[in-house]
């Protein structure tokens, strides 16, 4: 068992969320008719079963974590870097979703590709050091790719994508 | 017969064939790239099928599934990294053969074995599915509820930890209750959000759970793995090795039968089929000592079985509406988005469409063979695309696909939420396939449970007094007991 604490935390978060759903299910309106079940029955039953299963799983995680000789997580140097990268990529995605409609598809997509690839390159020791040529190449790739995808989907598949309203993109 | 003639007319149209070919090609490309699963490939292509007629859209997705499974053999052969989990057994002989300077031969054998396995399962699907669907027409509300329980239990019991597998299935069921209640229309967990009134949109859930979560996992792995050397294995001419494969027809046949049967059992999965077939081929072989050292029979066994698995897995999905594993669950989601609800009534109400799907599956297998034959150089080039660019591109496609549903940014946030949930569920061994199955089966289970109790006047014995319903519940119980026993055995041996 390499990671009892994060896994136990995930279980606790899930139990908390399901508990919240269980509480909310008491406010579902509608009654049972003719021997059938009320609209709240199914969510309530699922929540109860789910909490029991998650508690069982949590107990197992804790027991295995305590009894394991390797309970101390091996902190490789790459672990911290990968966590930073993971959080950065997720933050970029949320920002991307937030800016997609105000800034239009082409601009935000080009920015996402550029920022995401840059993050991965800068954090990876195996990658070569960033050069001006590399940055220019990546910027060009990001702009061309987002433009190509925009044209393919909006013209080819008639999918409406958000635009800035300047020159059709 | 009339349905088959109508179906031929539906499939053999220029645009439909083009869509199937496009889906197969994209599936092959995605399957060839390590880390991109068949489920992810289908989820990514789903948005493209929105405006298409049903047979065209489903044909494209079927092509993607066939292509993704077959494409897994490319990286298995050249890099010793299986493109998909079902091609793990292929690496055992294909890579040693490639290292000895016969990469083209290994790929040629894989092409023919994949094709024959796929065609075999297409025949079995066409022959077996209609009678199974006819039998399933006898099902009433109690049987459908029991079937949903059976499907969920089976897919959950495949998880390494039964409690986690079941919990994942229940998370899916819980999320399926979001929206209007199916019987009386009461709003549940909508919090005044209009986008949630019709329930959680399946597409953001599918793309989030299978594509975004995978990219997030790849971001973590990106810093752990050394860069793969894609140029170290030279490839000679990769033309199909018909004679070499047909010479081992017994291996092809046995492996195809195993693959189809394993595929038809919900929850069994591709890697099980290919390892079972590999083991069987080794037992049947006159030269078992050559296995693992670049023996053609090993490649044939693995590739025939993993491709025949596709047709097998379509049998329970199309006839009963129970997808057996992740890729079929995503495909079922695609069918539902197309307005096709898999199940026995599909055969009576939309015969031409269902037979069209069968024919499209045959056609996809033919395209799969042709593309692998002529496009092998392209797939090798694709293996050299830098991983960082690929991850960014996949995320861009995820967003565009989800946004395209109804130009609603809420779906993008929903997809990201499912992506994060899927990442942690996979990381801690819960799995995402039971979640999606719970989401799909939730409304079926709930409405049939309540309908059955309404008809029986609240008498719960209705589920055990009818033989088919009782049989499903008993088999589900048996699977649960078996999984518990396996878990306990595993715990004892590892202690």
From TrEMBL, chain A:
tRNA-binding as a keyword of this entry, yes or no, is: no
Would the keyword Transmembrane be found if you checked this record's keyword annotation? yes
Please give the Pfam families that the UniProt record associates with this protein. TctB
UniProt name for this protein? Tripartite tricarboxylate transporter TctB family protein
TM spans (from-to): 12-29, 41-63, 83-99, 105-123, 135-153
Give residue ranges for domain DUF1468: 12-162
* Record keywords, A-Z: Membrane, Transmembrane, Transmembrane helix
InterPro entries according to UniProt:
DUF1468
UniProtKB/TrEMBL annotation, chain B:
Q: Which domain of life is it from?
A: Bacteria
Which species is this UniProt entry from?
Vreelandella songnenensis
For this protein, the record's InterPro entries field holds: DUF112_TM
Q: Which residues cross the membrane?
A: 15-46, 106-129, 141-159, 165-184, 196-217, 257-278, 314-340, 352-376, 388-405, 411-442, 463-485
Q: Where is the DUF112 domain?
A: 17-437
Q: Which UniProt keywords apply?
A: Membrane, Transmembrane, Transmembrane helix
This chain belongs to the protein called Putative tricarboxylic transport membrane protein
